[in-house]
Structure formats: structure tokens, C-alpha cells
Amino acid sequence: MRDELAIVEQIQRDLQDVRWLGPEEIRSRARRRSRRRIVVATVVLALGGVSAVAVAAPRQSPSPALPAASASPTRHEITTDALLQPADLSQQVDVQLSQSGLGEPVLLDQMLGACRTSQGRSDGWQMSILSRSQTLVPKRVAPILTQSDGLVTQDLFRLTPDAASQLLATLDDVVAPCADWVSVGEYKVGGATGTGAATHRWAVVQRGFAGDGAALLRHTGTQPVDQKTGEPIGAAPRPTTTAVVRVGDLITVLRLGQAGTELDLRRLAEVAARRMCVAANPAC
Fold it and tell me: pTM higher than 0.85 for the full model?
């Protein structure tokens, strides 16, 4: 307790020696400190401004100009107006059958594929991204609605650009192994049965008549005969021709009904190429 009193007395004596500033002197010192802070702040801001200018305005080369937006955006869907229309045919069409698909092979001729696979080869077909198919049926057979009754069958495919170009460029190589192919199979004609054989031939007969590239693929076959007797079976098959046309990344495959000629097929192929322009990449 005595020690605590001694400490209090010492503090009181020290406080008596302290010199307290008067009000006017306190205000004067406050004004001087304010001025110093303003000067220091101004210097800092000035230095900061110089630094900011140095950082914000470096010497730069001009920015490269951005490419202009494409006037022709990439098309994906195959719309129906890219197909042949009833008005494109000389005969009146009453029924138009159509369907669409994804990832379908570009099938040029089913028997041609069978010829190749029978030799241990691939069928040779390119794969499409998407497709749209149609059969134009003449009015007089509209109730039947089968593809064999059609005036025209058309398959329209979108491929990658490289695949579309390659399809026509390699068509001769696809056909070459089947220039003279003998097919053998069981048959039944009336009450007779047995094993028959026939020779099939495919050839590219015309090129370059439509679009960015085109070809006529002709198939001919001999009359089948019985392998044991050599007797003919049925009738000789009618030659058939398929038109293959490319416009950009699109490929169309056209076939005519039994009444159509190769001249008719070529004419329709040219019309089909113009129709394809509305969906092709690049645009026509």
C-alpha cells in the first residue's frame, strides 16, 4: 500500500512539470501539419500520375484488324427446297414421299456394294453427316406408293468437304473390281428351283455435266442361267443408270423409273445441282 502511494505521488509531480500548449498554438501546429500532408499528397499524386502515364501509354503496334463476319454462314440442315420439286418433272406428280437420316452411307448401288464385299473389300461408301431422301410418284400409281413406282428417287447427303470431293474422285477405283463380276445364288421361277449365275458390270460412262462434279454410273447384267443346265432363267435385266452430283459439301444420287432415259437423267441432274445451291457449303 505504501509503494502504491509513492507511485501516485511521483506521477502527480511529473504531471506538474508537463508544459501544456495553449489553444492558439495547438491550432497553429495543426495548420502546419495539414499543409505538409497536402504537399506530400500532391507529390505522391504527381509521381503516381507520371507512373500511370508510363504504364497506360506504352508504345504499341496497331492491333490487327478483325476479319469481317462471313456473309455466308455455314449451313447444316438440308431443307426440302434443296431437293427436286414436282415442277421439275415433265409428268404430273401427285405424291412425294420423303424421309431424313443421320450418319447414313452414300449408297450408290446396293449390288455394287455386294460385289465388293464378296471379294473381301469394303463396300466403298462414304459416310454422310445427314441426309434427306424422296421418291416422286406419278399420279396414276399414287395409291401403290412403292419406290419402284416412282418417276425419280433422290438421296441428298451432306458430307465433310473432303469426303464429298473424294467420293467422285475415287469413283473409278470403287467400280474397278466390279467391271465383270459373276454373282451366284439360288433361284425359284414358277415351279423350278436351282442355282443360277449372272454376270454384272459397272462403269462410269460420263462425267462433269452438272454442279461441281458429276458422273453417270451404268450397271448392266447378263440373263441369269442355271449353273447345271445352262438354261436361261427369266428375262435379261434392264440396264440401269445412276447420276451422282456434287455441289460443295452435298452429294445427290438420282435414279429414274423404268421409262426414264440417260438423257432425262442428265437433265434432271443439272436441275438438281441448281436446287442444291440453297443448302451447299460454300454457297453457290
Answer: no
